[in-house]
């Protein structure tokens, strides 16, 4: 079986090329194959990995143009492997996630009110159970067409994280977070749903963004692009409809 | 680049320490070789113990007694009492900062039974307990504006020596993995929270490839002590072909262990050391061993064990709803670690340790499931507070020039190693012989054979080295340094295991199967002087 891997190295001079590797494997994950290549064939191949069980979010990567976790993806002959999009490549398949992770702080994705003893029901807890499964692998930033053209867009996982805290019954001050996501936030999303399709945890940031839009409207905000189209800019009935 | 408190490692222990040091007024810097959210803590599935009594009758005293019993006589009762008495408050704190624990119908935190526990005591968030705790701690650190630096690999601690007995900490040196440069970060106090060393078993471990014991190796080189290094927990149920963990909660919920004949052969909810040995005995008899959770039903498996189903499908091509899961026991948690006092401090002033890399003497010879997430909150808080307090009165000079230069030379020099022997191959060899001879069942001859092999490979190190000579993001280089750290620890584990001529908890000697309290109800302490390893027993 042959696979092609995009290589990138910037040291003294910048080199970009593709290496084809031949590996003997049946029914193996891409991470197992990468490990085998590194150990047996080419020690210079660089990639990130950790837990092998799709929970640490280290090995997100693109295969044939699609975001996957290397530890979850079964390799096929002819696969073309590349680093994630929209984050700067450090070397080969390794991208710098610092910038993307900073959006969690920009979006104030944390619980602001700390207090003891609030009893959550099972129903309360189920509201954000899925969103708190996020492993921050970054696949959604790689595929996001808005982040690709607006590098100030807060982006899918940060907005999902905002929903995770805004929807939490323990949070007393959700308004502050809603205020934060009005610019380069919920209204910039095109609802294309690409983030949902690549999420290894089956989270839909698109759906979370829609819920945040409703919360925003309930807090008195409106879609700025809709407002500019509308006569007087305020003939808005309260529910975003596109 | 000075901070008050430098925290090395950004798993649960490091982040709890960071939050507490910050809240005690310290300027905190956290440095990790990965990104914080990629740390080993995210892999913890089962839960965090606290005697809340939400699911069945329970008491703090029962938690204490279960922990002491499982520790086989070498836990410190005061430390265990502190751990268990602080547990309800620790869980309440996690709940207050937003951890999404699963809930009961009457709006309480849900709890389940893990091995060796007399009650349903482990608070959980489906089988994502560690993930949700780690990410919530990370979000809290961001909220507090705590500085976190990623992808920097610990090389050595910076120590200052006033005289032989009086050493204090001054910071640490790191390899910036991205740039390839050596960086020095000075600090009044340092907390090591770098995780365990289960990866000495290489592929025979449930752990992330990062659990290479870097912090322990740096600490013993710097002159502090390690203890109880021979005690390594084997988790009974990892997937047979990949060593991927299947949580104990699967057995807690009623899963069976079966041999090839379809017979049950042990009490599935005994402590891990006993269950792992029972499985190992079956495997030695030529049996295959399986975990059977089919009778729990699809609905329950989807709700409580979603990760397990996904991983069994991916790695074993079986669906646990309808099929048996092939399993084997593999290295999972290292009870041994950096020796600390009741304030989480080491022999080096201002140097603290917490989490799996440390030995707070609460797990003894065998850790109970659900006590490690608890440990990192209780002692992470203690280490953070104490390191911040220490830093407030720190008034000594720090001179890191010598250590920095030495480590720069080391990183440059390592690339000139001969490269005649492949270290990846040796890493796999060590993993295999450790699993076979220094694993679940050990004996004197086998352990000594492995020690000979380790000495031989240590001598060959200069003939190995990284093949990749580049500066930028050289994971080949990092893995080589990790390997040399692991070799240091391998020697220590073996010396301790050879010296302990008895069986106790996870340290099972097939040639001496009895526990001998008269001679060995004690902790194994190891340290180095002028590069020579010493081992003693202390009460």
What does this structure look like?
The complex is a heterodimer of chains A (242) and B (539). By secondary structure, chain A is α+β, with helices and mostly antiparallel strands. Chain A folds into 2 domains: 94 residues, Ubiquitin-like (UB roll), CATH 3.10.20; 136 residues, Fumarate Reductase Iron-sulfur Protein, Chain B, domain 2, CATH 1.10.1060. Helix content of chain A is 33%, strand content 15%. In chain A, the strands form 2 sheets. Chain A has a 5-stranded mixed beta sheet with strand order 2-1-5-3-4. The longest helix of chain A has 14 residues. Chain A starts with a strand and ends in a 13-residue tail after the last helix. The C terminus of chain A is likely disordered. Chain B is of the alpha/beta class and 539 residues long. The model of chain B has no long low-confidence stretch (mean pLDDT 96). In chain B, the strands form 4 sheets. In chain B, strands 1, 2, 6, 7, 8, 9 and 16 form a 7-stranded mixed beta sheet that branches. Chain B has a 5-stranded mixed beta sheet with strand order 17-15-10-18-19. Chain B has a 4-stranded antiparallel beta sheet with strand order 11-14-13-12. Chain B starts with a strand and ends with a strand. The chains are: A alpha+beta (242), B alpha/beta (539). At the A-B interface, β1, α1, α2, α3 and α6 of A face α3, α4 and α9 of B.
What's the order of the H and E elements of chain A? EEHEEEEEHHHHHHHHH
Sheet of most strands of chain A = 5 strands, mixed
Radius of gyration of chain B: 22 Å
Helix content of chain A: 25-40%
Helix count of chain A equals 10
């Amino acid at each position: 079986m042959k696979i092609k891997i995009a290589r990138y190295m910037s040291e003294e001079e910048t080199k970009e090329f593709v290496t084809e590797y031949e590996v003997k494997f049946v029914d193996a994950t891409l991470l197992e194959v990468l490990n085998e290549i590194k150990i047996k064939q080419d020690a210079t191949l660089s990639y990130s990995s950790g837990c092998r069980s799709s929970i640490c979010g280290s090995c997100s990567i693109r295969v044939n143009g699609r975001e996957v976790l290397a530890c979850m993806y079964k390799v096929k002959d002819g696969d073309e492997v590349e680093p994630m999009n929209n984050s700067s490549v450090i070397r080969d398949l390794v991208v710098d996630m610092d910038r993307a992770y900073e959006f969690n702080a920009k979006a104030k994705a944390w619980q602001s009110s700390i207090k003891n003893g609030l009893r959550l029901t099972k129903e309360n807890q189920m509201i954000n159970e899925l969103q708190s499964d996020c492993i921050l692998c970054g696949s959604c930033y790689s595929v996001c067409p808005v982040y690709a053209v607006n590098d100030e867009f807060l982006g899918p996982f940060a907005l999902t994280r905002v929903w995770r805290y805004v929807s939490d019954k323990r949070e007393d001050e959700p308004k502050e977070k809603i205020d934060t996501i009005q610019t380069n936030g919920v209204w910039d999303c095109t609802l294309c749903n690409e983030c949902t399709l690549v999420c290894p945890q089956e989270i839909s940031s698109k759906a979370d963004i829609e819920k945040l839009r409703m919360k925003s409207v309930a807090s008195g905000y409106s879609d700025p692009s809709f407002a500019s189209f509308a006569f007087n800019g305020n003939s808005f009935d309260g529910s975003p409809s596109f | 680049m000075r901070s008050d408190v430098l925290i090395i490692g950004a798993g649960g222990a490091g982040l709890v320490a960071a939050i507490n040091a910050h809240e005690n007024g310290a300027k905190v810097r956290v440095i990790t070789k990965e990104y914080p959210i990629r740390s080993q803590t995210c892999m913890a599935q089962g839960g965090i113990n606290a005697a809340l009594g939400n699911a069945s009758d329970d008491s703090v005293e029962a938690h204490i007694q279960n922990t002491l019993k499982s520790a086989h006589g070498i836990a410190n009762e005061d430390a265990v009492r502190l751990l268990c008495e602080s547990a309800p408050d620790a869980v309440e704190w996690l709940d207050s900062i937003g951890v999404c624990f699963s809930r009961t119908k009457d709006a309480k935190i849900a709890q389940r039974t893990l091995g060796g526990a007399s009650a349903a005591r482990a608070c959980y968030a489906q089988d994502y307990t560690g993930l949700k705790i780690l990410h919530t701690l990370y979000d809290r650190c961001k909220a507090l504006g705590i500085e976190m630096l990623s992808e920097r690999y610990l090389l050595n601690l910076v120590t200052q020596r006033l005289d032989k007995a009086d050493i204090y900490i001054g910071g640490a040196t790191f390899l910036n993995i991205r740039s390839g440069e050596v960086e020095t970060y000075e600090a009044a106090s340092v907390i090591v929270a770098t995780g365990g060393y289960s990866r000495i078993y290489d592929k025979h471990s449930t752990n992330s490839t990062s659990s290479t014991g870097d912090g322990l190796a740096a600490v013993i080189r710097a002159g502090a002590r390690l203890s109880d290094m021979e005690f390594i927990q084997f988790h009974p149920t990892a997937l047979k072909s990949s060593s991927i963990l299947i949580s104990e909660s699967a057995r807690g919920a009623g899963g069976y262990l079966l041999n090839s004949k379809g017979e049950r052969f042990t009490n599935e909810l005994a402590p891990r050391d006993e269950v792992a040995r029972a499985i190992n005995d079956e495997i030695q008899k030529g049996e295959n061993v399986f975990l059977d959770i089919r009778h729990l039903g699809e609905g329950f498996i989807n709700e409580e064990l979603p990760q397990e189903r996904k991983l069994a499908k991916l790695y074993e091509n079986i669906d646990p709803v309808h099929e048996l899961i092939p399993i084997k026991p593999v290295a999972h948690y290292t009870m041994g670690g950096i020796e600390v006092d009741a304030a989480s401090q080491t022999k080096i002033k201002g140097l603290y340790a917490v989490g799996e890399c440390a030995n707070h003497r609460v797990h003894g010879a065998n850790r109970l499931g659900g006590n490690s997430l608890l440990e990192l909150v209780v002692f992470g808080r203690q280490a953070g507070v104490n390191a911040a307090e220490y830093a407030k009165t720190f008034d000594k000079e720090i001179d890191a020039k010598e250590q920095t230069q030495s480590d720069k030379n080391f990183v440059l020099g390592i690339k000139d190693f001969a490269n005649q022997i492949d270290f990846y191959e040796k890493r796999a060899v060590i993993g295999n012989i450790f699993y076979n001879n220094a694993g679940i069942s050990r004996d004197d001859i086998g352990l000594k054979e492995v020690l000979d092999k380790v000495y031989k490979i240590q001598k060959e190190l200069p003939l190995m080295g990284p093949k990749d000579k580049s500066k930028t993001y050289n994971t080949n280089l990092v893995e080589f340094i990790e390997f040399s750290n692991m070799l240091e620890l391998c020697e220590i584990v073996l010396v301790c295991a050879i010296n302990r001529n008895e069986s106790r908890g996870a340290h099972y000697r097939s040639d001496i199967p009895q526990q001998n309290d008269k001679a060995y109800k004690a902790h194994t302490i190891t340290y180095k002087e002028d590069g020579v390893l010493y081992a003693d027993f202390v009460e």
